[in-house]
């Protein structure tokens, strides 16, 4: 197996594990409580192989404001608390796979 295929497998494994950790954190909260809002995760630098993989596979979009790759949270309706729990769980798990990347959970109230 070549190095590129191994990197793709590691990237997918890290993304899947992070999504699962975020989903578990979000499900601990009561459903649909609290204010409405948006949440996302920023992965920097945008030139890292993981950030480029996120964008290429459609898991993220390039972030023109903060820089890097932007992973938007599209699940959990409009509930800001649930989305915040998701991004915190996701970012914490992802940082164990990529400690050298800047991984920022972000959110804002609507």
Report what the structure shows:
- Helix 1 (3-27) packs antiparallel against helix 3 (80-97).
- By secondary structure, the chain is α+β, with helices and mostly antiparallel strands.
- It has one domain (3-109).
- The chain is globular.
- It has helices at residues 3-27, 49-57, 80-97, and strands spanning 37-44, 61-62, 69-72, 102-109.
- The chain has 3 helices and 4 strands; from the N terminus they run H-E-H-E-E-H-E.
- The model has no long low-confidence stretch (mean pLDDT 90).
- A hairpin with a 6-residue loop joins strand 2 (61-62) and strand 3 (69-72).
- It has a 4-stranded antiparallel beta sheet, covered by helices on one side.
Structural class, from secondary structure content?
A: alpha+beta
- The low-confidence parts are none
How far apart, in Å, are the first and last alpha carbons?
A: 47 Å
Strand content: 15-25%
Order of neighbouring strands in the sheet with most strands: 2-3-1-4
How would the blueprint of this fold be written?
Elements: H1 3-27, E1 37-44, H2 49-57, E2 61-62, E3 69-72, H3 80-97, E4 102-109
What's the gist of this structure?
This protein is α+β, with helices and mostly antiparallel strands and 110 residues long.
What features would you highlight for this structure?
globular; four-stranded antiparallel sheet; alpha+beta; 110 residues; 47% helix; 3 helices
């Amino acid at each position: 197996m070549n190095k590129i295929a191994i990197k793709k497998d590691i990237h997918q494994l890290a993304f899947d594990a992070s999504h699962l950790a975020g989903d578990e954190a979000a499900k601990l909260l009561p459903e649909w409580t609290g204010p409405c809002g948006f949440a996302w995760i920023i992965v920097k630098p945008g030139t890292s192989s993981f950030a480029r993989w996120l964008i290429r596979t459609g898991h993220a979009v390039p972030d023109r404001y903060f820089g890097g790759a932007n992973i938007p949270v599209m699940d959990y309706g409009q509930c800001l608390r649930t989305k915040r729990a998701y991004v915190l769980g996701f970012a914490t798990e992802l940082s164990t796979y990529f400690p050298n990347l800047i991984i920022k959970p972000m959110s804002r109230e609507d």
